[in-house]
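Board notes (copied after class):
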Amino acid sequence: MTLVALRGVGKTFSNGTEALRGVDFAIGAGEFVSLLGPSGCGKSTALRLIAGLAEPSAGQVEWARRETLGFVFQEPTLMPWRTVLGNVRLPLQIAGIGKSEAAARAEAALAQVGLAGFEASYPRQLSGGMKMRVAIARALVTGPKLLLLDEPFAALDEITRLRLNEDLLGLWASSGLTVAFVTHSVYESVFLSTRILVMAPRPGRIVADIALPDAGPRDEAYRTSAPYNEACRTVSAALKAAMS
């Protein structure tokens, strides 16, 4: 079932920059879809349009049924004066949820991302990877059906990034979430996704829609497997064609 679709979407900013032109794609319920392309091709803009943080200049964003969503930005954007629990509880507080219920739901979200026991910590006491886990927990605490992630791991070291990739896949598999994930890494997109949408440089548009076959568990062994390497070659070729 289609959850959300962009139909002929274009976006031109007030300074005249055309970020997107004629973008068409749909995201089905339960999919993990990555938007892959070079910097400046409109990946983040497309995500913001889905989230309702911006309006298209042309075309439409269509929902089968308007669903709750969570958004994780490139930076964790945590409030330094609030504890980990306080940061995760914030969306519920804004929504008027009672303190005890909000705390319980925030604790559950932190447990989902492996941070049980860090509720009383402050952002300054956390590593970069832990801060991003808090940001993901904050996005999950409202119980979204669609999770939007805008290059959340780009600033992290490679070891932390790989670990969080695996944790994110575990969350997706166990929760029934639909995920739209922005990245400029071929290897990350192949490891995570059920589908990859390859975007051409500005004005951004979809030039390839690549479905990845089920090749078994997405674990450390998968990263060195023949299906993974073949998929990386296919996606790399599509990205090279998009940029030429």
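Comment from the instructor: Helices lie at 43-51, 84-94, 99-112, 128-140, 158-175, 186-192, 226-243. The chain has a mean pLDDT of 93.
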